[in-house]
Design brief:
164 residues; alpha+beta; 6-stranded mixed beta sheet; 6 strands; 36% helix
Length: 164
């Protein structure tokens, strides 16, 4: 199995565990020998070290619904036992009883992660979510609202111009 396939399998497993919010199993995919892990979730202050990460994971999310998906994985081998993974992730959540977000919400982030090969397999020790800038999110939302009829009209004009 190539390193890309190994890391893809790892990311798929990690997303599956996040979707189930299985904290002990998620933690098992981190390098617990690492003395200074880094975890930056887009919605939180950077978590430096195990106490901060455990506090973040300790939030009761049992009533929430979540769906994390990912794609466009890029892998670089930094050393024989270290890999850098970059991928795009979409998150979706419903937080019952939340007055600010009474309906499901979602967003997109880019993830940069570093993993160390251990006897039990690849393990995270550095994880950063990088959200899209607000301006990009607003542009994408506006572009998504364009009627497909206009897209078809523009494509037809471009095709006619290319022919003539």
């Amino acid at each position: 199995m190539s390193i890309e396939q190994e890391i893809a399998a790892f990311v798929a497993d990690y997303m599956r565990l996040w979707n189930a919010y299985d904290v002990p199993a998620m933690q098992a995919l981190w390098d617990t020998d690492e003395t200074a892990p880094i975890y930056v979730a887009e919605e939180a202050e950077p978590m430096l070290g195990w106490p901060a990460i455990h506090a973040y994971w300790g939030i009761d999310r049992s009533k929430s619904e979540r769906l994390l998906t990912w794609d466009r994985l890029e892998v670089r081998q930094a050393a024989p036992d270290v890999a850098i993974a970059f991928y795009h992730m979409r998150w979706n959540a419903l937080i019952p009883g939340n007055r600010l977000y009474p309906r499901p919400i979602g967003g997109a982030v880019r993830v940069s992660a570093m993993l160390r090969r251990k006897p039990a397999g690849w393990r995270l020790f550095h994880y950063v979510e990088a959200p899209l800038a607000a301006l990009i999110q607003m542009r994408q939302a506006a572009e998504a609202m364009v009627d497909p009829v206009l897209h078809a009209r523009i494509a037809a004009k471009a095709a006619a111009k290319a022919e003539g």
